[in-house]
Predict the structure.
Amino acid sequence: MHSPALEGNLAQPVIRRLDALRQLSERGIALLQRAILEGLQRAGQGEDLANEGDPVDSVRIILSGWLCRFKTLEDGRRQITSFILPGDACDACVYLLSVMDHSIGTLTPVIYADIKRPVFERLLAADQSLAQAFWCETMVNSAIQREWTVNIGRRIALERVAHLLCEIHERLRPVGMIDGDSCAFPVTQIDLADATGLSVVHVNRTLQELRASRLITLRDRTLTIMDLRGLQNIALFTADYLHTKRCG
Amino acid sequence: MHSPALEGNLAQPVIRRLDALRQLSERGIALLQRAILEGLQRAGQGEDLANEGDPVDSVRIILSGWLCRFKTLEDGRRQITSFILPGDACDACVYLLSVMDHSIGTLTPVIYADIKRPVFERLLAADQSLAQAFWCETMVNSAIQREWTVNIGRRIALERVAHLLCEIHERLRPVGMIDGDSCAFPVTQIDLADATGLSVVHVNRTLQELRASRLITLRDRTLTIMDLRGLQNIALFTADYLHTKRCG
DNA sequence: CGTGCGGTTGAAGTAGGTCAAAGGGTGTGG
DNA sequence: CCACACCCTTTGACCTACTTCAACCGCACG
């Protein structure tokens, strides 16, 4: 686990993700890679990396594993506001706000880099392409959050679940986590319900409908999209909001 | 309208907003004020300032008037994803994405400053406090968007509408647009429905319920919150996510 | 071998949607 | 100055997509 080769691989998803948004300079890549290796951390499944109210003083970059942001109402109702996938920088900039207004929990074991704020700021100052890539990432996250608002506000259950699956599929691709038409999908139906604003029971029935329509298979934490076009159609999905083209 | 005094006043909401997030330097204020005055624009009510797919090459800072961001599905369903209030910088950073993934429409006549990207970037480079304030603003907007996800996903109609009213009230305060317990509220029930993910009919009945509970008055585009604590209670509202304390 | 979690099923209830029509205010054109 | 049109609001009746409750199943794990 501590051979240079393996460690180099660890940073791959992040670099792929950022480089897809904004071409990184060689120097930027090297600096980033070093910062990542110096801040390596692990967390188990079902842990909360941060809670509402916590002070924020570092940036976390996810190297492997899935997480989710969520908020909980006083009476226990829970809403997942986004999924954080390998290569995502969670809180690249949230730290500007000093205090967490939401929580972050792991859905799987996770390997991440914890980069202290001053280190991160030096990183951005040292390489313009890195700074721009991180800002782009932040803006894409905002765009995703807007789309979730639309999804939950105006799509019916079937469209809503389908849309979420399309989004995750599309986001996993650039970081190389799609294998054919399948991908890991470590999200329980409970999580899916909390992410879509539906009840577990209804998510269950909705998934069955998607399966019955031969659009997807979802078993043993593996999602297979059998008919991507079909799924996108019923989801009213267009990938524009993910801004996968290079920006800036 | 073109006396220096009046023009100075125009920029007030923006400066108050940004300064509340991150104390601005004298120099920063002066630079910002100049950039604003050089880019003054107007728009009428019901105009779209930008549409999905449009290229983005400037930042708009709202000096007076209300706008909303929204997305429309193919079949006409519409979701407002946020309200843009006086003092807000719409797209302070969205321009990084090059293409709009949503539209922006006016709810009232609007006065705004259109600042071209290179000018804006020079502004940020010239004064650190301005740069930080704008980034903070962007992060607060993300936080608001997350809360909307929670609102629409997990709150019932009554809570949801109440929460939206609380939020707007709270956001108008720092820019000095609250008069006692009243404020302008140029949002139709149609808009309210599109913002909350409800139907117009149900928004209407929900408002009546809030009125019957003597929590609010809403007539002639004026909102009066008669019992703020009560409204916040049923909305499960806490202002934390608005990060009104200085940050950074 | 129990215990607990996630998934599945059925039955019954309800929050909120849809449809349709009517009322009030305002602006416009004849 | 009236009439008409348009937009927003309001109301009533009916409908349904989704929730809730409750139970059961299968599987992994201690």
User: Anything to note?
Assistant: Residues 156-157, 198-199, 201-202, 205 of chain B lie near DNA strand C (CB under 10 Å from a C1').
